[in-house]
Amino acid sequence: MTQNPPDLRPDLAPKPRIGDTSRPGQPTIGMVSLGCPKALVDSERILTRLRAEGYAISADYAGADAVVVNTCGFLDSAKAESLDAIGEALAENGRVIVTGCLGAEPDYITGAHPRVLAVTGPHQYEQVLDAVHAAVPPAPDPFMDLVPAQAVSLTPRHYSYLKISEGCNHKCKFCVIPDMRGRLVSRPHGAVLREAERLVGAGVRELLVISQDTSAYGTDWKDRPSKAPILDLARDLGTLGAWVRLHYVYPYPHVRDLIPLMADPASGVLPYLDIPFQHAHPDVLKRMARPAAAARTLDEIAAWRAACPDITLRSTFIVGYPGETEAEFQTLLDWLDEAQLDRVGCFQYENVTGARANALPDHVPDDVKQDRWNRFMEKAQAISEAKLAAKVGTRMQVIVDLVEDDDATCRTTADAPEIDGNLFIDDGHATLHPGDVVTVEVDEAGEYDLWGRIAG
C-alpha cells in the first residue's frame, strides 16, 4: 500500500505557532497538533481552556509536565504519522494524552503505545481536560493567572480559522471522517458571528471559514431561517471588515448564489472557492459514492466565471482510486484541461481502515498511482504557470504574512495560507508589517508564486 508523504497531502494545516511564558512552579502542557485546519481549531480550544485554568503552554516536550497529541486519522499515512508523533512524545516526555480523529480508535493507539495516559476522540474537550487534570493537577495563582483576554491562537495573529460546523452527512466510500466526527452539526449563526467579531476585534484581518462541508451549513436545523443558511452567514461575516475565505464548499446548486457576493469587492467575501471535486469520470465518482455530474460541473464553473471573472477555484483530487482505468484517468486530465482550475492538490489513493473503498476490486498498483500523480501534477503546474504569467503587469491587493530582511511574503486573494502560492516583495518592504493589506504591481511570475512591488 502506498502512503502519501506530507508533501502530497494538501489537507495539512499550517504548523502550529506556540509561544508562551510561565511563572515559577506553573504546570506546563505541551501540544502537538497534526492534520487539517479543523483539528488545529480543536487544539486552539483545548489550549484556551487550559490557559484559563492556569496552565502554561509549551511547544517543547522537555519543558512540559505532560503532552497532548492531537491526531489525524484521515489516511493510513496520517495515522502512521500520528503514531510516530505519539511515540516521539513518549520517548521525549513520557506523559502523553492522545486526542483527535485517531482517538476514535483507542485500541489502535494503545496497541501501539500502551503507555499513553488517556485517549479521547475528536472535539471531546471535557475529556481531554479531565485527562490533563488527572495527569497534572492545576495550580492556578489567582494573582498571576488570569482568564485570557482572547482565545489561544496557533496561527499568526492576522488570520484565523473559523469552524462553523462539525461532522458530515456524505457517505463517500474512501472517507471515514463521518464515522469519527459524526453527522453534520452546525454551530448557531449568532455564536459563529460573535466569535468572528471577537477575532476581528483582536486584530484578525482574514477569516478562513472551515468545516467538513461548508455549503451544507445550517441544513441540519429543523427550523432554519432560509434554504441555504451559508448565504446569510457569508453575508454577515463580510460586514466585519476582514477578508472572508470559504473552504471545503461542496458544489450544491445554491453555491451559485454565493458568487454575486464574491463578485462585489465591498462584500468582504473573497472571490475564492475551495471545492473538493475528487475526480471527473462519472464511473469513478459512482464508485466513490459521489454525484456523477462532471459535465454539469463544467457548466457550473463556466457560470461562476461568467458572474465573477476574478474567481479563484481550488480543488483536490484522488488518483489511482480502485478500478481507475487509464481511460478514466485520461478523462480526468481532459476535464482539468477544460476546467482550468487555478489551484490544485492531489492525493494518491490509499486504503483507510474502516473505509468501504478497501473492499472494491481492481486496486491500482503503486507505481501506476505514482505515474498518474506525476502526470496530473505536471498538467496542473502548467495551468498554474500560464494563469500566473497572465497576471504580470496587473495590480492586486495582498495581505502580508511575514517580513524579513530580504523580502516580504504576502498572499493575494487567490491564495490561502500554506496550501496555495505566495507573492514576494523584495524592495521597499521594510515598513510593512504582518497583517497589512497593500496594493502591488506584479512584475514576475513562476509556477506557483508571484513577485511584485508596492504600487505607487
TrEMBL record:
Coiled coil: none annotated. GO terms for biological process: tRNA modification. SUPFAM superfamilies: Radical SAM enzymes. Its cofactor is [4Fe-4S] cluster. GO terms for molecular function: 4 iron, 4 sulfur cluster binding; aspartic acid methylthiotransferase activity; metal ion binding; protein methylthiotransferase activity. SMART domains: Elp3 (SM00729). HAMAP family: MTTase_RimO. PANTHER family: RIBOSOMAL PROTEIN S12 METHYLTHIOTRANSFERASE RIMO, RIBOSOMAL PROTEIN US12 METHYLTHIOTRANSFERASE RIMO. Catalyzes the methylthiolation of an aspartic acid residue of ribosomal protein uS12. This is Ribosomal protein uS12 methylthiotransferase RimO. It comes from Meridianimarinicoccus roseus.
